[in-house]
Write a structure and sequence with these properties.
heterodimer, A: mainly alpha, 3 domains, B: alpha/beta, Cytidine Deaminase, domain 2, 6 helices, 8 strands
Chain lengths: ~300, ~210
């Protein structure tokens, strides 16, 4: 089953196993830290803890060779995430000594200003860097992150839109913008973002489901009918097992039933929700039987069983 | 049907701790859930005895909340004749103490069936302070509403509109934080991603 964070169940399990192992003295800290980088997950506490233990061990550090510097960077970012400014400062200081003219290190210095809440200084630092590197993607991202941290949602939306004009293939940015629009209840704009994502990556069920969620939240017969189609597409993409999509089809079926009360019901259109209800029931029977009565009751109230 | 001006609220340790643990599990995201309990027999107090954590990535979308409320209502009614009595929300950012539009809208969803509903917004700064001082007050802002008006904050420092039933809550919470108990709590979205995860969290405090 795929988690909502984009990690597969096996990836999440592997990550947890390594974290557990390294935490309890079983080694594998470096493997864990590499996996965190590869999967791009955010686990600042263990990264800080395990990364520091490696860096403070001269033998372990020398074994890393040139990867040592990557580790300093990774630990610096984790430290900032944990609000451990001192550790971050130390790591960045070491990197600055080794790579005095590096843009990458300069960005970290900017991030440190952010972590300290020195927004104006960070803004200035990034502006300087952008003069010589106008299309640096990561600096643009930091500007957006800063606006977000300061709660300036209007600015975030503005920056993200500008960013996407340049970096239109950045799917994470489209998702981020969609989620912000949703939080502002600007559903039409959120829907537009998901439409872009679905066009770009039609095989990713997450986008279909999120799009359908937005349409369902907007409400109205047409939106329920479209949402149902996209939940159905997600069911197909995931071999019929995605619980959110199955529920989604059922909810849409129920909502459409309610709105079409008294009118001729389209036999064909009630087939899919009934089928989804059946699959949902089977899944619960298998994996969460004690919850089955609740699900059955809900499906009955939606007039699907 | 009058407003909730005279109603008091009492939240159990169990409910309060679950709420905080849920927020702690997802520090960089907004979380929400529903409050479960009942109106006291003398109708002066809404007793919040439990919470059902719902979302951590889709707080402004309807489907997870709708399904959670439907099943939660059914479950808690059967289990202990409890009703859905409110909604809780914790904002994404540490210093954001505003009850945003999505939270208000979600609160309305609950209010429709329970007019004395409370909306609780986690106050992060206060939480830090209260855990350190082992304080007596819950680190949440209380909102209630009238049919004609929107959600308004009730009470402030020192009033007893919302009390923590057990005084030991923050001491216990400090222990749980030290042992990273938040890792064990599952919300309704976790359940949707893996239905073997139980949003009732029956073994959380065992």
């Amino acid at each position: 089953m795929v988690g909502s964070g984009g990690l597969s169940a096996s990836e999440a399990a592997q990550l947890d196993r390594l974290e557990d192992q390294a935490t309890h003295g079983g080694g594998g800290a470096w493997e864990y830290l590499c996996l965190v980088r590869r999967l791009k997950v955010r686990r600042p506490e263990p990264v800080l803890r395990l990364g520091l233990s490696l860096l403070n061990d001269p033998k372990a550090r020398s074994k890393l060779g040139s990867e040592e510097w990557t580790l300093y960077e990774q630990v610096a970012v984790a430290a900032m995430d944990c609000q451990n400014i001192d550790v971050a400062k130390d790591c960045i200081g070491i990197l600055k000594k080794k790579f005095p003219d590096s843009l990458r290190v300069a960005r970290l210095e900017g991030m440190l200003l952010e972590a300290k809440g020195a927004w104006a200084e960070a803004e200035r630092a990034y502006a300087v860097l952008l003069e010589t590197n106008p299309n640096d993607q990561l600096i643009h991202k930091r500007k957006i992150a800063m606006a977000k941290a300061q709660g300036n949602t209007t600015l975030v939306v503005e920056y993200l839109n500008k960013y996407l004009e340049i970096f239109m293939a950045d799917h994470d940015a489209w998702r981020e913008l969609a989620e912000i629009y949703v939080s502002l209840q600007m559903y039409k704009q959120a829907a537009f973002c998901y439409e872009e994502l679905i066009l770009a990556q039609p095989m990713v069920s997450l986008y279909q489901i999120s799009y359908a969620d937005v349409l369902y939240t907007m409400g109205g017969l047409e939106n329920f009918q479209t949402a149902k189609k996209y939940y159905a597409a997600a069911i197909q993409l995931t071999g019929g097992k995605n619980i959110r999509a199955l529920y989604g089809v059922c909810l849409c079926g129920g909502a459409i039933n309610q709105l079409s009360r008294g009118r001729n019901k389209d036999e064909e259109s009630s087939e899919l929700p009934a089928l989804a209800a059946e699959v949902l029931t089977k899944e619960y029977q298998k994996w969460a039987p004690e919850k089955l009565p609740l699900v059955a009751e809900m499906l009955k109230s939606l007039k699907l069983s | 049907m009058g407003g909730s001006d005279d109603i008091k609220f009492e939240i159990s340790q169990k409910a309060y701790i679950k709420l905080v643990l849920h927020a702690l599990k997802h520090p960089s995201m907004a979380v929400n859930g529903i409050l479960v309990g009942r109106l006291s027999s003398d109708t002066t107090t809404v007793q919040i005895s439990d919470v059902m954590p719902v979302s951590h990535s889709a707080c402004a979308l309807l489907p997870p909340l709708q399904i959670a409320v439907t099943q939660g209502e059914e479950y808690y009614l059967k289990e202990g004749e409890l009703n859905v009595v409110g909604y809780y929300h914790a904002n994404e950012r540490y210093d954001d103490c505003e009850l945003g539009p999505a939270a208000r809208r979600n609160g309305d969803h609950i209010f429709r069936d329970f007019p004395q509903a409370a909306v609780l917004l986690l106050d992060n700064k206060k939480l830090d302070h209260l855990i350190k001082e082992k304080g007596r007050d819950p680190a949440v802002m209380l909102f209630t509403r009238d049919s004609s008006k929107g959600w308004r904050q009730v009470g402030s420092e020192g009033t007893d509109k919302l009390v923590l039933k057990e005084p030991s809550a923050h001491a216990l919470l400090a222990d749980y934080i030290a042992s990273k108990k938040w890792l064990e709590i599952d919300d309704f979205e976790d359940h949707l991603d893996d239905i073997s995860k139980d949003w009732v969290n029956p073994n959380l405090f065992k």
